[in-house]
Amino acid sequence: MATEEPFHTDNTDLGDLESEQLYLEAANILQKLQLDKPVDEEWSLDDMEAHIEENLQDQFVQEALTQDIDLAQYSEQIQEKLQIHEKAFVQDFIGETNNIANLHIQISSCDKILESMDHMLRNFQNNLANISNEIRHLQQYSAELNIKKKNRELVRGQLSQVVDEMVVPQSMIQIIMDVPVTERQFLEQLHELSHKIKFVKEQSFHDAIACQDVQEVLEKLRIK
Questions:
Q1: Where are the domains of the chain?
Q2: Which of 29, 76, 92, 95 is most buried by a 10 A CB count?
Q3: Over the Cα atoms of the chain, what is R_g?
Q4: Average pLDDT in the 65-70 region?
């Protein structure tokens, strides 16, 4: 019993087979014309002529036409070669089934990883947006606090000046009440007292409530 030979693919280059297919198309049309058979209805005479002319430009077809070749037999040989290559391709595909399946699994896994990374990046982007909003809010709040601080410093400076002008220190009261009028200290404090009285009168026109607290003291010192 003859053993079955292992399956091997023909070494014919695929480019040569494609050229041979072009030749077969031209040869089949020529054979139909030689046998006075009608060509396919889908082919018009112009299309047929153009197709034949295009196929005849191929170098392999031109070489084949110059040889004495049986078109029918040659057609069968080409078909057999094509079938051999087709079977080889099918066998190769079947042999690579596991690799293709593994590749599909890897691609699916990569898709899941990419989807997870996309979700993570979107969350990170949202977090950055929230942080940016918080930073903007803190900057606005800091600017408001800075304005309040400057306003308070300005008010404190003006208020401190007003208080210094209105307050009657204990030393002034003691000098005016106890020191003789001929003493220089008395004259200096008297001049300061006159300045304070004038200032309090000016502020009283602005309805400064604090003026009422010192007016009585200043008036008593003035009378003294």
A1: 14-95, 97-153, 167-223
A2: 29
A3: 57
A4: 68
